[in-house]
Amino acid sequence: MAAAQSSSGSDRFDPNFTNNVINAIGPATSPRNREVLGSLIRHIHDFAREVELTVDEWMTGVRFMNAVGQISDSKRNEGQRISDVVGLESLVDEIAHKLLSDSDAIPTSSTILGPFWSPNAPFRSLGASIIQDPHSGQVALMHGRVTDLSTGVGIPGAVVDIWQASSNGKYDFQDPDNQTDNNLRGKFRADENGEYWFYCLKPTAYSLPTDGPAGTLLRLLDRHPMRPAHIHLMISHPDYRPVTTQIFPSDDPYLTTDSVFAVKDDLVVDFKPREGDENASLDLEYNVILPQRAADQSSHAARL
To answer: What does the alpha-carbon distance between residue 143 and residue 284 come to, in Å, rounded to a whole number?
Structure first.
């Protein structure tokens, strides 16, 4: 079919056009930039030829990209949200994870960072609560151990960085009328056994913002905007490869239709009733396994 032919074998369109554009890349361009941008140009051109993109459709795409930039600011990253909606961030995460852990031993699974991480989350004492403001959710004691992938030994001093939406489905900087800065955020340093514990909320499912280009795209695709309830985690230590991940309650109705495709089977967890704790009605155990940086680097180098 002529419309599906690519630049290399089509008589319908100029067979040299794409190569001319790619060959215009200058000699000072780095090899990696040449590879990535050259491939991007080739795929975009092949896509346009395959679907025989019209001028009106192209201009709609240009306006869409402009709208992504126009609605974005220091508190709203619409470009990252678009990447999430089309599954690109989850795919990039999968590629990175496969490159770095292709062995019989399995570290804690990673998933997307998302747009709501903050570098300003405060360190809190073990056993403290990240809940600063009123809510209508259920409080849980979350606890676990951070261990070495190879030895199973605890990692003292590992940092557990947590952030989550409140029971109204909003993060602190989305909701300044109801939440103070760093509500439901915190960093905790594991003890001498690699153990950590703190109080948080059982998370609540929420909708992606639909008042911008991401919402337009979801409606065009006839998809819902809901994210399953989740807790964000970033676990790190200077001697280990860090992991950024999310964990999801097993009873959430959106696990199989996450609007950003971030759910993995081993990241689904069970909240259990907690007895004898006046501060929490639920209990969540979540253990984390990290590979050492040295092993990580040598394994990657061996495949290059």
So the answer is: 6
Give the C-alpha separation, 239 to 241, whole Å.
7
pTM of the shown model: 0.85
Taking only the tens place, the pLDDT of each residue in 96-127 is 877 555 456 689 999 999 999 999 999 999 99
Contact 46, 6 (CB under 8 A): yes
Report d(CA 166, CA 173) in Å as an integer.
11
CB burial of residue 303 (10 Å; 0-12, 13-18, 19+): exposed
pLDDT in tens, 239-254: 999 999 999 999 999 9
Sheet hosting strand 159-163, strand order edge to edge: 185-189, 159-163, 231-237, 240-249, 268-269
Q: CA-to-CA distance for 103 and 255, rounded, in angstroms?
A: 27
Q: Classify residue 236 as left (phi > 0), alpha (psi -120 to 50) or beta.
A: beta
**What tokens does 238 get?**
């200077």
Residue 302, CB half-sphere, CA atoms under 13 Å: how many?
Answer: 10
State the chain's maximal CA–CA distance in angstroms.
Answer: 76
Which two three-digit tokens encode residue 217? 């795209």
Distance CA 63, CA 72 (A): 14
CA distance 165 to 203: 7
